[in-house]
From TrEMBL:
<dbReference type="GO" id="GO:0030246">
    <property type="term" value="F:carbohydrate binding"/>
</dbReference>
<keyword id="KW-0677">Repeat</keyword>
<protein>
    <submittedName>
        <fullName>Uncharacterized protein LOC571939 precursor</fullName>
    </submittedName>
</protein>
<keyword id="KW-0430">Lectin</keyword>
<dbReference type="Pfam" id="PF02140">
    <property type="entry name" value="SUEL_Lectin"/>
</dbReference>
<dbReference type="InterPro" id="IPR000922">
    <property type="entry name" value="Lectin_gal-bd_dom"/>
</dbReference>
<keyword id="KW-0732">Signal</keyword>
<feature type="domain" description="SUEL-type lectin">
    <location>
        <begin position="124"/>
        <end position="214"/>
    </location>
</feature>
<dbReference type="InterPro" id="IPR043159">
    <property type="entry name" value="Lectin_gal-bd_sf"/>
</dbReference>
<feature type="signal peptide">
    <location>
        <begin position="1"/>
        <end position="20"/>
    </location>
</feature>
């Protein structure tokens, strides 16, 4: 079976059908609405291919809903929070309360499909510059944030009285870094309030980027 899977992967690669990443394996996770959504990669990091609400029958999430109960004009199948929250992480948990269900929609579960992709993560201290490089292929940005999410990175001496915000996010980071670096072989990034704005005044920040190198064959 493993031999057949490898052969299939080679055929798909030769046909150009593996569009984004070298791994041919999708992981599909079905999560009941009353449970937290959990994704994990034992190797590499998460890249969400799709995440949507489901209403067909499953063994664990209850009976199917009638198609007449799912109004396509008011029910939005894609869950945009999942890739924003999970991409670039080895493990991801989203509390069930964080995913808002559209009103008047009768769903039973979430269906999430993701890849586990090899990736690099860099952290650039505020006012510093770093270069993203791909010796083979071109840069694909998976996740990026300018701010602070821990109490150790890029910390030099700071006054004991100064508070440290470890829940600091700049929402435009991913878009700005992607526009600058996506599809290039190397790219210089500068961690600065002038570039990303200041999401937490008084806290020393850093730029964290997770990226992979996509094969030329898939450009």
């Amino acid at each position: 079976m493993d031999f057949l899977r490898v052969c299939l992967a080679l055929v798909l690669m030769n046909c150009g059908l593996l569009m984004a990443f070298p791994s041919p394996y999708d992981h599909t996770v079905i999560t009941c609405l009353d449970s937290d959504l959990r994704l994990r990669c034992d190797y590499g990091v998460i890249f969400v291919k799709s995440s949507r609400f489901g209403w067909r029958s499953t063994r664990t999430c209850g009976p199917a809903r009638s198609p007449f109960e799912v109004d396509p004009d008011r029910c939005y199948p894609e869950i945009s929070l999942v890739p924003k929250w999970c991409n670039g992480r080895a493990e991801c948990v989203i509390n069930k309360e964080m995913i808002a269900r559209p009103h008047h929609c009768f769903y039973t579960h979430y269906i999430t499909t993701h890849f586990c992709v090899p990736a690099k993560t860099i952290k650039v201290c505020e006012h510093d510059r770093e270069i993203l490089r791909c010796e083979h292929g071109r840069i694909k940005i998976l996740a990026a944030n300018y701010g602070r999410t821990d109490d150790t990175t890029c910390l030099r001496r700071r006054p004991y009285w100064r508070p440290l915000n470890t829940n600091c996010y700049s929402p435009n980071t991913l878009d700005l870094v992607s526009k600058r670096c996506e599809g290039r072989k190397h790219c210089s990034v500068f961690a600065s309030n002038d570039v990303f704005s200041d999401p937490c005044v008084g806290t020393r920040k850093y730029l964290e980027i997770t990226y992979t190198c996509r094969s030329h064959h898939h450009d």
